[in-house]
Amino acid sequence: MSRSVNPELMGCLENLKAEGDRKLSARELAEIIGDVASTLTADLGPTTSITEAPAAGGAPDAMHQVVAAALEALRTIGDPEKEDGRFAELCSEMDEIRSATQEAAARFLSVAERIEDIAGHPDLDSGDQSDLYRLATDIYEASGFQDITGQRLTHMAQTLKQVELQIASAEAVLGDKNAVQAAETLADTVEKTEARKMEYILHGPQEAGKANTQEEIDKILASFD
Amino acid sequence: MAVDLNMPVLIVDDYKTMLRIIRNLLKQIGFNNVDEATDGKAALEKMQQRKYGLVISDWNMEPMTGLELLKEVRADEKLRPTPFIMITAESKTENVIAAKQAGVNNYIVKPFNAATLKTKLTSVLGDF
């Protein structure tokens, strides 16, 4: 069976191979995925249901069916009717988690500050004072969880935006005119976020066990001396 | 020479919880003259109005990150000598190197403890 391949796509892929390890922007990635999907669905009309349409030549094509099924599955994720994005509800739930953790941390800190007030009482035994200060310190240290939780939630929200962009790109390729504008807007947002991350090499908290420890960071700093 | 515990210290973080944690830990050590900012831009404005003996900054903030703040501080003749400690969850080697090359005095990775903070303060400022 023959399938027409977009010559621009082939040229783009050849250029990328020649460029080596350069990281792709979100927009470039979306365009490539769009071209690939476009090539795979070249024989379909824009309003045809991709899962029902026969592949070129009338025979079922395994790859075509897999891609079609994946695109259909992606289209059902979230609520595409939401004005502020199909993942608006998920993002709202993440905001609720962020608020709840912030509130909890604030209460812990208030308790620790009260403990310190009590520890400062002149009638208190010095041993008890030390114990109370140590407990307050423990609470301060533990309350740092909120910062890490918040950063991870932000990372998740950014990832959802990327998924949303891929879905909108796929929908646009399948002929959904509304998705074209949505994909362009999302591409701008995602690209700006990614460009800023690249410029300032931000990664957020690393997974436990993979992150550099304080000792390892100290060694890196010492290597400059 | 002993560290002047009354010197103004500026802490910069976009999380109010973290500002409160660092402020309280500094208070335990003895620093009582602590000021706060929630991003690099606000911190820079404060630094242009007041002389700080130390800046402790997060990295990941908008509209100006901690690294951008550090670069601005080191590029300003008046602000350049200010000791600068980065406290951040960004722990990748390239982050540490970028901060060091920009002129950071020390680097603390989150989550951190009070002992680490004290050790780094001593390393940057001297004995308490």
SSE blueprint and pairings:
The complex is a heterodimer of chains A (225) and B (128).
Chain A (H helix, E strand, L loop, with lengths): L6 H13 L6 H15 L21 H14 L12 H32 L6 H17 L2 H29 L3 H23 L14 H9 L3
Chain B lengths: L8 E4 L3 H14 L4 E4 L2 H10 L4 E4 L8 H10 L8 E5 L4 H10 L3 E4 L4 H12 L3
Parallel strand pairs in B: 1-2, 1-3, 3-4, 4-5
Helix pairs in contact in B: 2-3
Describe, in plain words, how this protein is organized in 3D.
The complex is a heterodimer of chains A (225) and B (128). Chain A has helices spanning 7-19, 26-40, 62-75, 88-119, 126-142, 145-173, 177-199, 214-222. Chain A has 225 residues and is mostly helical. With 128 residues, chain B is of the alpha/beta class. Chain B has helices at residues 16-29, 40-49, 66-75, 93-102, 114-125, and strands at 9-12, 34-37, 54-57, 84-88, 106-109. In chain B, β4 (84-88), α4 (93-102) and β5 (106-109) form a beta-alpha-beta unit. In chain B, α2 runs parallel beside α3. The longest helix of chain B has 14 residues, at 16-29.
